[in-house]
Specification:
10 strands, alpha/beta, two-stranded antiparallel sheet, single chain, globular, 4 helices, about 30% strand, 8-stranded mixed beta sheet, about 180 residues
Length: about 180
């Protein structure tokens, strides 16, 4: 049976503190090496959807898009230059459609939404699973998830992690 984009699970991947803060000054407000390794393991080989600012912050940090993944960048900036490993779409619905179509074509059953806050908010109606890293701190920042963003989801798994600068819990939510 041939898989279609409609068969591909859309999963939101996010790290947030106790107040749903996800960013500060265009970057993550913490360093959690073990969670970054988990993110890499979860998304390597997959198609990811990111907003322009998230994509640019990754390219600035790594010098390229996320290795081993194809990034579909949702941006209103026509003609945005993108390096190999990325492509653009003019809005979130088209970026999600493209990501799911490519994932299905390559035999994957899941694609990932990786940020930022505006992209998360627009993608939420199409998301069926959330992989949340809940950082057990109040770090402050200027980028926050929308109020009620977990409404309609049920927590199905959770595991506390210690050993990084801050303790956190890796939680999975499924649309109920």
């Amino acid at each position: 049976m041939t898989r279609t984009g409609a068969d591909v699970l859309t999963t939101l991947v996010v790290a947030a503190d106790e107040d749903d803060v996800i960013g500060a000054d265009g970057d993550l407000p913490w360093r959690l090496p073990s969670d970054l390794r988990r993110f890499k393991a979860l998304t390597t080989g997959a198609v990811v959807v990111a907003g322009r600012r998230t994509h640019e912050s990754i390219v600035t940090r790594l010098g390229r898009p996320l290795p081993g993944r194809l990034t579909v960048v949702a941006t209103r900036r026509a003609g945005l230059p993108v390096p190999d490993g990325a492509l653009t779409q003019p809005d979130v619905p088209q970026a999600l459609h493209t990501a799911r179509t490519i994932a299905a074509f390559t035999g994957r059953d899941e694609c990932f939404v990786i940020g930022g806050a505006e992209i998360y908010a627009q993608a939420l109606p199409e998301v069926r699973r959330i992989q949340l890293t809940r950082v057990h701190a109040r770090v402050g920042g200027d980028t926050v998830l929308p109020a009620g963003w977990l409404t309609g989801f049920e927590r199905t798994a959770g595991e506390r992690v210690e050993g990084d600068a801050l303790p956190y819990t890796v939680e999975t939510y499924e649309r109920s």
